[in-house]
Amino acid sequence: MIKVYPDRRWPAFLRVLADTVTVAWSVTWAYLGWLIYQTVLGLEVIADGITSTGATFNSWIASFRNAVPGGIPFLTKFLLDTADALKKYSGDSLLATGHQIHDAIFQTAIVLGLLVALPPILLVLLPYAGWRWRDMRETGAALAFVRIASLTGRAEQARAVLAYRAVSTLSFRALMSASADPVGDIAERRYDRLADAMLKRAGLDPARLAPHDLPELPPHRGS
To answer: How many folded domains does the chain comprise?
Structure first.
């Protein structure tokens, strides 16, 4: 059983506050990572400019090739070879360089964005998420314990178990805050104060541990 928030207002408020702060922290750093990504990605205009220049060179070279007069020995071949060389060493190379820079900027933007966002998010989120999961499971298990004891009419026995657990697990300061004489309470079977302290520590309202009225069985009739 999982119980997300305790019954008592103050512990529940503290957990809601901690959840809100953790979510806000994660969202803030994710947004900062996104800003870094967008900023670096803005450098793609440089790569686009280089690519556009290469495409312009190729269009000029194509126009030049179309303008070369045909049927002139040696001159036509020379001009066509010159156009091919220009395209190979200027237009095509600029296009290839522009695409490479574009890809490099995109990859760099992703890496920098993740490096900015992930470490602070994981540094806070992983320990906190682990603690909250254990806390919810512990509170849920305590609630299941109380419900079963109340439904089965064993509330007093459950209080005894909780009182002994309080003596064995609570700090001395918490123990003496719960009861001025915890040893005497155990010896004289006064379990209420210690059991209530243990339930409060588990995040539950002590009023939950109350016996429920069990249905009365009809009297057995002999044959």
So the answer is: 2
